[in-house]
Write a structure and sequence with these properties.
- With about 400 residues, the chain is of the alpha/beta class.
- The chain folds into 2 domains: about 260 residues, Crotonobetainyl-coa:carnitine coa-transferase, domain 1 (Rossmann fold, 3-Layer(aba) Sandwich), CATH 3.40.50.10540; about 80 residues, formyl-coa transferase, domain 3.
- It contains 18 helices and 11 strands.
- The strands form 3 sheets. The chain has a 6-stranded parallel sheet with strand order 3-2-1-4-5-6, with helices on both faces. It has a 3-stranded antiparallel sheet with strand order 7-8-9, covered by helices on one side.
- A hairpin with a 5-residue loop joins strand 7 and strand 8.
- Helix 8 packs across helix 9.
- The longest helix has 24 residues.
Length: about 400
Amino acid sequence: MTASQTRPLDGLLVVSLEHAIAAPFCTRQLADLGARVIKVERPGAGDFARGYDARVKGLASHFVWTNRSKESLTLDLKQPQALAVLGELLAKADVLVQNLAPGAAARMGLGYASLHPRHPRLVVCDISGYGEDGPYRDKKAYDLLIQSEAGFLSITGTPQAPSKAGISVADIAAGMYAYSSILSALLLRGRTGEGSHIDVSMLEALAEWMNYPLYYAFEGAAPPPRTGAAHAAIYPYGPFAANDGGTVVLGLQNEREWKMFCEVVLQDAALAADPRFDSNAGRNQHRDQLGAIVREALAALSTAELVARLDRAQIANARMNDMAGLWAHPQLAARQRWSTVGTPAGPVPALLPPGRVSSFDYRMDPVPAVGEHTRDILRELGRSDLQIAQLRAGGAI
């Protein structure tokens, strides 16, 4: 089937008071599906994530990732003229997303309670660290802090030291739940004609992802231990070194696989019947002894030889790639998952969103410069060039 140019969210207007990761990640995905996303930024510097690094042709890696296909409008929302512009946009908008400091949007009259009587169809999504009420409401919340509060650090790392995730996992979790909640609210509005208020917290989003360790520690039971890249409850399951410097991660799930692993990979069929190792509980209990045996056997193989034996035994496995390996991953290339997007510094490669859809193409438009669309948006709202110049001279835009 040939994809059409009609996308699921074509014609919807999203206004976002956003910075850093959670809200921009949410709204970028709405833009992927065709929504018009107007990103409101501070005049001058814009979203502070623009300054995180300069790794992508002088642009910040986080910003390039989360802000394609958007329009940038600069507004100093402390000025009445700027708030008036925002009010005109909200009168036309379908969705407002914000992740300002706790309470900041409400103080400007941009909370759901203030907006809903005037704009009953508007979906308002507030993203915060801890939610709009409760004793932690006003605490500052950054990704690492939420990883700590949600217990993520307690189960991640080595026995000697906890480790944070290498990506902004709390921000991503919150952004994903905001995105899916907005889609749900838009579906509901199609039935009821009414907008919704969505209150997404980073803590609750990451706590949802922590449900396995929560239940593992049910009613005071011991929590999963920190085991580095190994599995806390299944063995062998984790990274093993080959003799050419490569690392292969493998995972055994059942007794059939354990026997095949011993026979085909270790080439020691008798080991499968060793009473210390003939059940997963035993292998986990004696993982130090078994680990020494497995590491010695696998260290005699190259990465390619080890992967070939694991594949022959039908044991799940993966090479431990670095970023260069992911850029060059043959599966991504074979499935044509790479596209190109424009940026203020020129075109850069970009992964297509996950999920190959037969009925439409994802939107892959440029990453905006700070305030790149301010003039066009203001002209669209009826401002003359003179009025725009006055707003700029007064610092409102």
